[in-house]
Design brief:
It is a single chain. By secondary structure, this protein is α/β, with parallel strands linked by helices. It contains 4 helices and 9 strands, in the order βαβαβββαβαβββ. The protein has 2 domains: 101 residues, 3-Layer(aba) Sandwich (Rossmann fold), CATH 3.40.50; 28 residues, no CATH class. Helices cover 23% and strands 32% of the residues.
Length: 133
């Protein structure tokens, strides 16, 4: 199965390692220094007990176009990064491609219309360029 993981932070990185080590063909879409490090060293998952799992047999690319058609796509980005990546995601999709979104970066309105101790609470999202509300 061809699987793309868009965003290899804590959640996407863990998924990519486990899927690659299970024998799947994994492509990670990442950017910057993290992309370069994955290309050189693969991805490492460090468990609480110190045990390490390293996936070196995976592809890493800078954009969805370079990843190509996939059978399964995990979207593991922070909420504020999705708008920049969404237009290029069409390059991943074939007729039967499945997409799994992973809540990674809760939106400010998450607690609207909730009752209980957090009713009406507004989340603030940290962004490398400042704080988004």
């Amino acid at each position: 199965m061809r699987i793309a993981v868009i965003g290899a932070g804590a959640i996407g990185g863990m998924l990519a390692v486990r899927l690659a080590l299970s024998g799947q063909m994994v492509t990670v879409v990442e950017k910057g220094a993290h992309l370069e490090a994955i290309g050189r060293n693969g991805l490492k998952l460090v468990h609480n007990d110190g045990v390490e799992e390293i996936a070196k047999d995976l592809r890493s690319v800078a954009n969805c176009i370079d990843a190509g058609l996939q059978d399964l796509v995990f979207l593991a980005l922070k909420a504020y990064d999705i708008a920049a990546v969404a237009p290029q995601m069409r390059a991943l999709f074939g007729e039967d491609t499945m997409v799994v979104t992973i809540q990674n970066g809760l939106p400010w309105w998450y607690f609207q219309n909730f009752s209980g101790p957090h009713a009406g609470y507004r989340l603030k999202t940290a962004d490398p360029n400042g704080v988004i509300e």
